[in-house]
Amino acid sequence: MSDAPLHILVVEDEPEVRATAVAILSSFGYSVTAAADGEEALAALETAQPDLILSDVRMPGIDGFQLLERVRANPAWHQIPFIIVSAKAGSADLRMGMSLGADDYVTKPYRPLDLKKAIEIRVQRAKQVSDAIAGNRRLLTRILPHELQAALIGVIGYADLMMDAATEGRPLSVDELSEYGRMLRLSGARIFRIVENLLFWARLEEPRDSLGSHGKENRVLEVVTSAGLNGFVGAISRRFGRPLDVLVDCPLRARVQVVTPGFEFVTTHIVENALKYSLPGTQVLITVRTNAAMLVLGVRDSGRGMTQEQIAHIGNSRQLERHDFGQKGLGVGLMLAATFARMSGGNLELRPGIGEKGLIVTLSLPLATDPAAA
Fold first, then answer.
1. Which one of 87, 112, 135 terminates a domain?
2. pLDDT tens for residues 121-161?
3. Alpha-carbon torsion (323, 327, 332, 333), positive or negative
4. Distance (Å, rounded) from C-alpha 296 to C-alpha 282?
5. Alpha helices per DSSP H over 142-253
6. Looking at the structure, do residues 164 and 115 belong to the same domain, yes or no?
7. 168 occurs within a structural domain
């Protein structure tokens, strides 16, 4: 929390209850603005944005539910934590409030310490969300919506074709059913991959939210072996129909210290990228070596490569310009790999291949320093 006192907007139509709430909150050092109903609360929001809103639900005029709906619908206010107040726990009022997007609830009469705890928890969580959004605004506002929209267009489009056929009373042929099913499955797989990326991104954020740093005490160990690498890389190459194009050179067994389990996940993205942007029949070489205290995984392909500007974008965890590439997911995957490497104390490096042909991706991760683990 900042040094400035938290600003709480209290919305309560009963004067005595409102005065009690103001007194309790003021005793905790909070700055308090009081409003007698939803209309006064909206006017207060126009002049100053509080850190949290504490609102009764049953009020004349604009009640607490309507106030909550307006707060959540306004882009300038929708992230403000909103705690609803009801006279009875488990009531329909509480269920309605939570369904409309309330963050928490408290009951009357107020229990000062419970109220203080609820406020501090909600303000802290709101700050964590705000920090995550600010640090990953490009991912949340530009990349993922685009990815989801592209995948959902396929689902909706083929569903519409099936519904049109049903409306017309026209049975679909076996070939049509097969094609529609195949395309729906492809779109579903893309959505599933987006969800996987989001979940991995969330795992990367969890240690940062809880500890604020990534010291060795919150690292995990992952083992890298030739058999393990050949196993999942072989599955990737078969999925692309290129089992003979991928060569794995991993003559060692090692353990790495990383911020969260993710070696296979990020390596999968790197190998998929190499297969997407190289032609069948050309080789994708994967090497694993150790260099000083680092495990170094290299993936080299003979595809179209990338410009220095695009490489710089990935290095800054930014999305690649998609109009240069027809495939989807390239920037997200390498961005996650770069973030994973950096947060683990390693690095992701991209450079053009020999003669500007193809791309060489190098993932460096710290080796385990515990002799017993090694």
1. 135
2. 888 877 766 765 565 555 555 566 666 767 777 788 778 88
3. negative
4. 23
5. 144-167, 174-211, 226-239
6. no
7. yes
